Each structure stands twice: as C-alpha cells, then as structure tokens.
Amino acid sequence: MGHVTLPDTHPLLSGRTASSSLVRALRGDRPEVLPVWFMRQAGRSLPEYRALRVGTAMLDACLDPALSSEITLQPVRRHGVDAGIFFSDIVVPIKLAGVGVDIVAGRGPVLDQPIRTPDDVAALRPLEQEALAPIAEGVARTVAELGDTPLIGFAGAPFTLAAYLVEGGPSKDHIRARALMHSDPETWQALLGWAADVTGAFLRAQVLAGASAAQLFDSWVGSLSLSDYEQHVAPFSARALSHVADLDVPTIHFGVGSGEVLSAMHGVGVDAVGVDWRIPLDEASRRLGGGVPVQGNIDPAMLQAPWPVLEAHVREVVRRGRAAPAHVLNLGHGVGPDTDPDVLTRIVALAHTL
C-alpha cells in the first residue's frame, strides 16, 4: 500500500479491513474462510428495508445519508455476510450531475428527456464534487458502524448508463444505444466519456469516504458483440476505473450475459471479475487465463428451490470456483425482491463451512 492518496484513517490503511477475507480474496489470496456477499443484498427482499422505505422515494433514500447507511447495514446484521455493498443506484450520479431522472416502481430508471443528439450530449454538465457530499457522508456513517467488515462501493459502467440515457429508460436489446454507437461515433464517444467521468467520480467519492473495494456494474454488456465492446465500450470502462486507480483499492467488474467478453472486461484494469450464472466458474476462469480472482455465481432462480437442491448448487459453485486463484461467493445477478431472506442467511452459514 505505497500510495498516500487514501486518508490514514481509511479502513484499508488503519488495519481494519486489509486482512478481511473479501479484500484478501480480491487481491488473489485464498483466505481460510470463503467470503460471501450478495448483489442487491440491501433492499427489497428484507422486511426491515420495506418498513424503513415507507413514504420515501428510491432516489431520495439514496441521497439521505442516515437512510442509505441504515439500509446498507441491514443485511450485514441479518445475514453475517463478509461485506456491505453501499445502497445506491447507478443513476444517482447522473441525477447529481443535473440530468432529470426518476426511478419508477416496477420499471426502473426513467429519464425526463432521452439524450440522443450531439446537442443533447453537449448540454450535459460535469458532476461537481460538492454534489457528492450526501454519498460521502452515507459511506462514512456506514464504515463507522461496520468495524472490520469491508464496505464495497459501486457504480454503473458507462455503457449501461449510456443505454439508459439514449433509450430514456430500461429496454430489452438497447437498439437505439447500439445504433448510435455505429451511426454517430463522435456523439457516442462524447456521451460515454461524460458517463465515465460522472460514474468514476461517484466511485471515487465512495472509496475516499471509506469503501474498501469497488465494483463496476455493467448490467447490459450482454447485448454487445466482443468487437463492439472492445472498440466502443472498454476504453470508457477503463476511464471510469481510472478515477480510483491511484487509490490502490481492489476492484471488481461485473456484467450480465458477459461470457463472451469476460477477458476484455478484465482487461480494462480490475483485480477480479464477477461472473453471471450462465457459465460455470471453472470455464470462466479458463477464459480469464487462470490467474484472475472470480466472484459469483449462484443462479438467483435457485434461491426459490428446495434447500437440498440449492445446497448442492452452492457446493458445486464453490467446487468450480477452486479453479481460480481466489473466489468470492456471490450470486450470478442480484437478489430478487421475493427471495426469502432466511435462505440467504443459510447460504452464508454454509459458505463459511466450505
């Protein structure tokens, strides 16, 4: 840890989290106990979350430090997971940069106005540092409570943000976004450059405030061919990550449907790669060249299966994960809202015996 850019009080430097199972695994070491956390562990599956959120809009909850902190801590208390993941949303930084966006229940992020033309992109403003204050405060409050359990900061990858911006909301195949990539590459590059800097600043604020790891989340990368990803997307994911490169914090890159682009996703400059449920971890490790820590990849649908079926699946995931130099047990995507939280607690207890 030769870098001086993290404050001395940061958990990675103060001795609180550097030897945690999560941080060790992301750095390529195999800790005695397998680390486990779940994407979307904070939120909809927990009754205590639903009680807390009554009357508060999603984006307001993300920007209320007391609320975002408490929501982040709930699953750590309940499940005994080896990391918290900061409760937020990938569109929070674009909202903080002045883009009109709201999260519509049952639909997801919806923009007041899609961003599609060169003029639309030129009108986008940078994200001012002071706008990130509620994020930094939420992280700092959380880290103060977590003790030696690491907090993971997270941000959306530029392609996924651009897909929302161009489409104006969620879409199935991101045709408009992919069409823009080819029909107007200059506008595409300007848009992704903006998205990379906004989401990168969001990630950096979380790390400086005390997050011990950082995950870049590319939800829609599965809609891209390898050549499109390498040419039109990867450079901007690398640019987003460059915002935390000097901080020496372990990084994870996760994408849904990413089997064809795993190696390229690692190539943007991360320590570990999250793998979705579609390919087994030993095959993912082979595609990554055998030297990259992996995260994943319990099938979220299995959370609804009878325990003996789920247990066998978890054991199989862990067995295949041994092909990689290190493994962080997780889901191949997020916890669904109708998941029984007791099932997650049970997986954690099992993982800690494996």
General description of the model:
The protein has 354 residues and is of the alpha/beta class. It has one domain: TIM Barrel (Alpha-Beta Barrel). Strands 1-4-5-6-7-8-9 form a 7-stranded parallel β-sheet. A two-stranded antiparallel sheet has the order 2-3. It is globular. The two termini are 30 Å apart. The mean pLDDT is 94.
Short structural description:
The chain contains 15 helices and nine strands.
Largest sheet: 7 strands, parallel
Shape: globular
Please give the number of β-strands.
9
Number of domains: 1
Strand content: 5-15%
Name of the level-1 CATH class: Alpha Beta
CATH fold-type name: TIM Barrel
Q: What percent of residues adopt helix (DSSP H or I)?
A: 40-55%
Q: Average pLDDT across residues?
A: 94
- Which segments are poorly predicted (pLDDT under 50) over 5 or more consecutive residues? none
In CATH terms, what is the architecture? Alpha-Beta Barrel
Order of helices and strands: HHHHEHEEHHEHHHEHEHEHEHEH
Distance between the termini: 30 Å
**Which class do the helix and strand fractions yield?**
alpha/beta
The spatial strand order of the largest sheet comes to 1-4-5-6-7-8-9
* Radius of gyration over C-alpha positions, nearest whole angstrom: 19 Å
User: What's the total helix number?
Assistant: 15
Sequence-ordered SSE layout with sheet pairings:
Blueprint: H1 21-26, H2 47-53, H3 58-62, H4 65-79, E1 84-85, H5 92-96, E2 101-104, E3 108-111, H6 118-122, H7 133-146, E4 151-156, H8 158-167, H9 175-183, H10 185-208, E5 213-218, H11 226-241, E6 251-255, H12 262-266, E7 272-274, H13 281-287, E8 294-298, H14 307-321, E9 327-331, H15 341-351
Parallel strand pairs: 1-4, 4-5, 5-6, 6-7, 7-8, 8-9
Antiparallel strand pairs: 2-3
